[in-house]
TrEMBL record:
Transmembrane domains' residue ranges: none
Protein name from the UniProt record: tRNA/rRNA methyltransferase SpoU type domain-containing protein
Ranges for domain tRNA/rRNA methyltransferase SpoU type: 7-152
SUPFAM superfamilies associated with the record: alpha/beta knot
The organism of origin for this protein: Genlisea aurea
PANTHER family registered for this protein in UniProt: TRNA (CYTIDINE(34)-2'-O)-METHYLTRANSFERASE
GO biological process, one term: wobble position ribose methylation
Keywords carried by this UniProt record: Cytoplasm, Methyltransferase, S-adenosyl-L-methionine, Transferase, tRNA processing
Matching InterPro entries: Alpha/beta_knot_MTases, SpoU_MeTrfase, TrmL, tRNA_m1G_MTases_N
Family matches, as CDD domains: SpoU-like_TrmL
């Protein structure tokens, strides 16, 4: 079978610990790694973050990156195939009409500002994707809802492969929240 991760989720400057905790829980449920790109709007040991993730933290691998440039260097060192896919309100492709592939990294911006121009530019070769919605009364979807919609559509297209077999094994638990793989 092919090597490497099927999918990964990247949050760039998330601001609300409850959203990030819920996203971590979704990542645990779908056997997907989570990357947090600083600056964060909370401390990584925030009680609200831990509470939102409940007792699922041992089953998700979370890596914190000090900046977008540090994340970009980390990403470049990862095995191919890989692509960065930006999820944005103004995306070119509808999430359910886009064709996902093994090695896709689903990138989401902060709840207050979305993705920075630098991050959008880095994702341009992979694509910018939107989740359709009626904007008459609502500015945007909740970040954790958006990640869930995107992650499960990508997973569906890939036959939920990461949720079966060897990918479904829980990662080894870490003792410290501040290690490379926090909670996981």
């Amino acid at each position: 079978p092919p090597t490497g991760e099927l999918l990964q989720v990247v949050l760039v400057s998330p601001q609300i610990p409850g959203n990030t905790g819920c996203i971590a829980r979704t990542c645990a449920a779908s056997s997907v790694k989570l990357h947090l790109v600083e600056p964060l709007g909370f401390a990584v040991d925030d009680a609200k973050l831990k509470r939102a993730g409940l007792d699922y933290w041992p089953y998700v691998v979370v890596k914190v990156h000090s900046s977008w440039s540090e994340f970009r260097e980390y990403f470049k060192k990862q095995d191919d195939p890989k692509r960065l896919l930006a999820f944005t309100k103004r995306g070119s492709f509808i999430h359910s009409e886009f064709t996902y592939r093994r090695g896709d990294w689903l990138v989401f911006g902060s709840e207050t500002c979305g993705l920075a121009p630098e991050a959008l530019a880095e994702c341009s070769t992979g694509g910018s994707i939107r989740i359709p919605m009626v904007e008459t009364y609502v500015r945007c979807l909740n970040l954790s809802v958006s990640v869930g919609i995107a992650l499960y559509e990508a997973s569906r297209q890939l036959g939920y492969e990461q949720m079966r077999g060897e990918h479904a094994e829980p990662p080894t638990c870490a003792k410290s929240f501040l290690t490379e793989d926090i909670f996981g």
